[in-house]
Design brief:
This protein is α/β, with parallel strands linked by helices. It has helices at 9-19, 29-32, 67-70, 80-85, 100-109, 125-136, 151-158, 173-182, 209-216, 226-230, 232-236, 248-254, 264-280, 294-299, 310-331, 334-338, 343-349, and strands at residues 90-95, 113-117, 142-145, 164-167, 218-223, 243-246, 283-287, 302-309. An eight-stranded parallel barrel has the order 1-2-3-4-5-6-7-8, surrounded by eight helices. Helix 5 (100-109) packs parallel to helix 6 (125-136).
């Protein structure tokens, strides 16, 4: 599970990093107004308005619409998989609130991807669908993290049409191979088929879905136990595993350091596992932590970095808002808490 900082500092750091991705302009005044920003040369997703163009064919076949154009609305301009193959480093957010509004804001803010977390969040498949639709409105790629590694959960998640799927607690190459099989139709795997009517294929409109789905889907295996990280290289080398997501919190718990994920022994094991993943050939992915920020992860070869959690962002902002109000009561003036800027102006500029 991603780290939830007890102060606003970790949130500011993550948001500051996002504001400087690839030296492009941030998506809102909020990001551009952050002070003490950390330079984080990742690639920032440019938001573009795309138009759905459905053209009629020649007069002899005017009733046939262009299927390719009709389903273009279901595809992002550039998939996560292709961006990784191009050497980009991607920055994302975990969504645990299952709020479509928050998901939409996350997409508009410029995150490269959003992980809808069904493992630790309260929502299920229906709730995840609402978030996927909100993210699709601004073409933000969605990844679904499953509550467990099973063919049933994988089938239901994949039918929604996410760009990526994350399997938790993968501890061996055998488990990784099973996870991959859950994502493939027979004979390559055991995924159940309803491709003619599910969202993943544009409800059957996308006639090329069966030919392209395997190439476009990002399969992610999470290593988050002492047993799993010891086999990091073997798991990473499994055919079909695109990414290995490190889980520092569960790893520290499995090692007996639940309250100290930054412990020296935990960090040493993480470093060994990271090397194994890179040598195995999969992309390395992970969470930024208070003791291990986004820049550190990128330096060590991570290509997908998750910097924050929606609930953590709101919690930190809410706690800080209450703190400022109580301080203003003690000091007797809003200006004394917020500095020289007018209180209303400061509020709305944030």
């Amino acid at each position: 599970m991603p780290a939830l900082s007890t102060t606003g500092s970790a949130t500011t750091t993550a948001a500051s990093s996002l504001a400087l991705l690839n030296h492009e302009k941030p998506a809102s005044k909020l990001l551009s107004s952050l002070s003490n920003s950390v330079k984080f040369p990742l690639n920032f997703k440019t938001l573009k308005n795309r138009k759905l163009s459905i053209e009629a064919k020649s007069a002899t076949s005017s009733s046939n619409l262009s299927t390719t154009n009709a389903v273009s609305a279901f595809s992002a301009p550039s998939s996560l998989k292709s961006r990784l193959q191009n050497g980009e480093t991607l920055y994302g957010i975990f969504l645990l609130s299952f709020s479509p509004a928050i998901a939409e804001i996350a997409g508009l803010s410029g995150y490269d991807f959003a992980v809808v977390d069904m493992e630790h969040g309260p929502g299920g498949i229906t709730d995840a669908l609402h978030c996927l639709r909100a993210l699709a409105a601004n073409q933000t790629p969605a990844i679904l993290r499953l509550p467990e590694s099973s063919p049933t959960w994988a089938k239901k998640a994949l039918d929604l049409g996410p760009q990526g799927i994350m399997f938790p607690m993968i501890e061996s190459p055998k488990m990784a191979r099973k996870a991959v099989s859950y994502c493939r139709f027979p004979p390559e795997g055991i995924r159940g088929s309803a491709h003619t009517v599910v969202r993943a294929s544009g409800y059957g409109i996308d006639e090329g879905y069966l030919s392209n789905y395997a190439d476009e889907l990002l399969i992610m295996c999470q290593e988050e136990s002492e047993e799993g990280v010891k086999k990091a290289e073997e798991i990473s080398a499994v055919d079909g595993v695109d990414c290995v997501q490190m889980g520092p919190l569960d790893l520290s718990a499995s090692m007996g350091y639940l309250w100290d994920p930054g412990h020296k022994k935990v960090r040493e094991m993480m470093r060994e596992a990271e090397k194994g993943v890179l040598e195995g050939g999969a992309y390395l992915c992970g969470f930024a932590m208070p003791h291990d920020g986004p820049i550190n992860l990128k330096t060590r070869g991570y290509h997908m970095v998750s910097g924050t959690v929606d609930l953590g962002l709101f919690r930190s902002a809410a706690v800080d808002d209450v703190r400022k109000f109580k301080m203003s009561l003690i000091q007797g003036c809003d200006d004394e808490v917020g500095g020289s800027k007018d209180g209303d102006e400061k509020y709305w500029s944030e």
